[in-house]
Request: fold
Amino acid sequence: MRITEAAVELHGTLGPANTRLTDVAKLAGVSRMTVYNHFPTERDLFFACSTHWATRNPFPDPASWAGIEDPSERLVGALKEFYGWYGLKEDMLGKVFRDTPIVPALAQVMDEFWWPYAEGVLDTLSAGWSVRSADAEALRTALRLVVTFDTWRVLTESALDSEDAAELAGRMVIGAFER
Reply:
């Protein structure tokens, strides 16, 4: 547990790409070999960190929005929850999303951990829209865009708070697809 907590702390401050195994061992108060004994691969350590972090910082729950019949209301409600969560978890999420393309073991864990969750979110948010079948993939793409961390970051760096950013992102999708 000390090793995992040390890695989580370093990933949140330095980022996964800048965290060395020797730093994890030092912060955990163990030898480098002890880290390898518990986590033989970098993927094993990333998976343990992701699981530990997600347990303490639960992702927004799509089931809480699934009961909202109106897809526009569901979208805006979901975005408000996501964007608020992003604001609270910005330090870790920003570093993880930044480093995913350059750390293959992290990308592997994200493929197992985050992206299936994100697809479930899209399933929930895309239900109930009255769009032509030809527009269904475009709707899903627009939803994918507005739920991403990077979209939240761009909107909030432009002087919007998370709630106003969620409203704007929701209005963009609603305006493009509500008939």
Notes: The chain has a mean pLDDT of 95.
